[in-house]
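For consistency, the fold was encoded as tokens, which produced the following:
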Amino acid sequence: MSETKKADTQRLMQLIVKSSKVTTLAMQSVKSALAGDISSARGLLDEARVKGVEAHNVQTEMIQQEIRGEGASPTLLSVHAQDHFMNSHLLLEVVNIIVNQQEQIETLKERITKLEQVGEMHE
């Protein structure tokens, strides 16, 4: 395998690994949010975003390389890497919505509990 091919394969693997880490962190964020731990969910989401930027930087580097005419031909591995990246990027957007909604649910639960306590005091 040529050095160029090795370097291309390493970058593709970086994109897959970083994107997979984004997905893992995003799903952990959802689990934390559903458990009512919004602070942890936000922290995990922030961590996922940082990894997402790292993945995006790898992808951007590869795109720039291709624009300069230095890129490799598309392979199954490159399609797979792009698939991981795209899915992780979309997942970040969806998880952000879920965490925001769960935060609203937790706030409403607290308000309901307070209202029930006030109602019990007046009975």
